[in-house]
Amino acid sequence: MNQLEWEIGQPEPDKSQIEEAELKQYEINHLFLNTFSTPSGKKVLEWLEQHTLNTPTWWPDADYDKAVANGFFREGQNCLVRQIKYKIEQAKQYTQKRKK
Fold it and tell me: What is the pTM of this model?
């Protein structure tokens, strides 16, 4: 499934299905914004960034197989934090767009 939650290879969704999927995505993004806008949420996000995005993914002197496995694992962690930040930013942009 893709981000708008219809199966790839299935008939193209119609306009109402796309709008429904986009609304559902906005609602989820807004929940991320609400969650991580609280004082506790901000501290959690800072901690996640410190322990993922701001730490090394690869070590040049590590055993090759272990370094590769660790690198993929760490990039998965980084991806999740980036996705959280992206959802927050998307919700902020949507909110700003609605105010105009």
Answer: 0.77
